[in-house]
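To the wet lab folks,

You asked to see what we're planning to order before we commit. Fair enough. Below is the target structure as tokens, and below that is the sequence we designed to fit it. If anything looks off to you, flag it before the synthesis order goes out.
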């Protein structure tokens, strides 16, 4: 069984706080799961510690699950637990785009940025959850600020979430895509594409991309007759299975033995290799090295380069699932689900118009436990790189024997020599 790296304190938090589970379960297994189609997946989730059964030793796999319960389950499995370090930057809205542009001397709200890429308004508040346990325990804020929930989805209902309403399969697919950072491809890569399910013609156009991405990620499947039935309410068994499948996709190639460091060797006035990145997990997928962008930048404290992250110069856009930040005379945009990662602006026009685009990641960025993971081509560290001769794209210097990845921290499409 694939290892999950939850500390005991987090396990206890999950077991105590999720409202539809309890701490007790029969040591020999949950008695109503024997022979159930979800037995394997639910058992794995229970062994991991982010879900459990009821005091009477049952799991009740066919009971329905609500919107609030599924939202909390997804966040808990993703380690975005109120009060945890992982969730810290999502417990406040100060890392959203709008806060950056409205905090200065002039407002950026009326500037004409391309299709909202450079500005994202704060999410509207959900109007019916103030006194709900989801909000009182801190989950609603994280869900909105991360982008697991998007309030605009409920604008037609006066921004009422109806948290105790049973969740549908469509809604679960969308939340799972947001958990995995698949919003961009869901919206951009499948226009007019048939899902392959027999009830495809009953789906709305905007739903198809989310269903396709969730299916391709192995998160969901259809029914034996080939249908999807996205409007059907979901059961506890379906919910756990989807989340477990999402974790399998998310944790692909995860290796906790990899050490992540940073370097600024490409700047001629710095000679700085091997700066450790604290609490940074890394992945190797199809030969690419994935490192967490926020933790790598947080490791660099050089104020003259404005490289600290998160900071006032770095912000998260939850609806687009993008990180944008300024550095010297350029701005950089990293979006989950795409390899198009940045744009640069000269100082005199930075605030007005898009200038030019950079495409310097070789694979789409991913999400891992709330962190945007950028995939980079591994480059062997040698005499040339020691002398500031760098490749012309974003890289990570990889020592396979030592299992050490050194991230070239300046995200520019060129390198000074």
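Sequence we intend to order:
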């Amino acid at each position: 069984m694939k290892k999950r790296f939850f500390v005991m304190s987090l396990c206890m938090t999950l077991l105590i706080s999720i409202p539809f589970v309890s701490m007790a379960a029969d040591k020999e297994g949950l008695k109503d799961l024997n022979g159930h189609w979800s037995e394997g997946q639910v058992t794995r989730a229970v062994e991991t510690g982010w879900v459990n059964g009821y005091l009477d030793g049952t799991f009740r796999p066919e009971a329905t699950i609500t919107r609030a319960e599924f939202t909390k389950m997804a966040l808990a499995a993703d380690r975005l637990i109120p009060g945890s370090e992982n969730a810290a930057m999502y417990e406040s809205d100060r890392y959203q785009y709008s806060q950056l542009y409205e905090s200065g001397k002039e407002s950026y709200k009326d500037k004409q940025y391309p299709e909202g890429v450079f500005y994202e308004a704060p999410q509207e508040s959900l109007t019916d959850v103030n006194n709900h346990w989801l909000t009182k325990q801190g989950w609603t804020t994280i869900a909105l600020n991360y982008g697991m929930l998007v309030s605009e989805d409920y604008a037609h209902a006066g921004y009422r979430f109806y948290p105790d309403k049973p969740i549908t399969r469509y809604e679960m697919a969308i939340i799972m895509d947001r958990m995995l950072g698949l919003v961009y491809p869901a919206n951009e890569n499948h226009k007019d594409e048939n899902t392959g399910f027999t009830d495809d013609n009953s789906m709305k156009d905007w739903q198809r991309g989310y269903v396709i991405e969730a299916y391709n990620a192995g998160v969901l499947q259809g029914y034996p007759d080939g249908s999807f039935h996205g409007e059907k309410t979901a059961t506890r068994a379906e919910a756990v299975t989807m989340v477990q499948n999402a974790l399998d996709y998310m944790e692909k190639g995860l290796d906790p033995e990899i050490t992540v460091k940073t370097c600024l060797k490409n700047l001629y006035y710095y000679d700085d290799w091997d700066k450790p990145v604290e609490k940074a997990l890394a992945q190797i997928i199809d030969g690419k090295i994935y490192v967490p962008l926020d933790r790598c930048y947080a490791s660099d404290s050089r104020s003259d380069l404005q490289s600290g992250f998160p900071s006032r110069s770095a912000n998260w856009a939850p609806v687009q699932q993008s990180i944008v930040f300024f550095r010297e005379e350029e701005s950089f945009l990293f979006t989950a689900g795409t390899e198009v990662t940045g744009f640069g602006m000269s100082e005199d026009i930075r605030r007005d118009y898009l200038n030019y685009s950079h495409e310097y990641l070789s694979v789409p960025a991913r999400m891992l436990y709330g962190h945007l993971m950028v995939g980079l081509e591994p480059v062997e560290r040698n005499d040339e790189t020691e002398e500031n001769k760098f490749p012309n794209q974003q890289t990570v210097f990889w020592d396979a024997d030592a299992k050490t990845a050194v991230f070239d921290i300046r995200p520019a499409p060129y390198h000074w020599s």
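Structural context that might help your review: The two ends are 47 Å apart (CA to CA). The first strand starts at residue 259 and ends at 263.

Thanks,
Computational group
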